[in-house]
Write the structure tokens for this entry.
Amino acid sequence: MNNYKTIGIIGGMGPLATYDLAEKILDNTVASCDQDNIPVLIDCNTRIADRTAAILHGGADPRPEMKKSAKRLEEAGADVLIIACNTAHYFYDSVCEDISIPVLHMPRLTAQRLLDMGVKKAGVLATDGTCESGVYGNALEEEGIEPVYPSAEKQKIIMSLIYDHVKAGIMDFSDLDIDGVLAEMQEKGAEALILGCTELPMAFDIIGDTPVPVVDPTEVLARAAVSFAGAPLKNRQK
């Protein structure tokens, strides 16, 4: 029987990304039997409103349902929370208000990872909400890293990749000029790319090789959660 802390996942943003995060917790934990794994609670709350719509277009407020998820997980026994959505970190402070357990911050952890890699300029591939709200820009600048964003034309491709494809369960991206996006980011001087939407790592597993390294914030967050829980980490950091 292990004494690991229990991880709680605020999920549903979207469901596929939620279980991708849970799988990465498993994949990053050294375990030879069921009992070697970390206890994980998942609240896949699909009632949480779209974060980009709320930030940019006056859409429904996602905070009430996010706060409900956080409270449910705390009451169920979670010792630490992680949020399975990059854009949702715009509302991080609100999520933390009514609970007494820590919430790991995916963009800040990702910025620290890039700093460790020696990156000075990082490309941000993410939703409009994440890009325009400064969720990653602020975290990167705090570490002295310059954020680089796609042009408006190329950003439309990223939004289509996220919403029209991965969230819709369509994993054929042949209609999208992904190579054009990657070439533009390289031309702008990006030394690494942040896959700053939890749907993007799943897409890039299919897209394959890129001209500069990619950093998967979901992987970074999963590893931080495993460490917080007190379990041994596999040596598989990308």
Notes: The chain is about 45% helix and 10% strand.
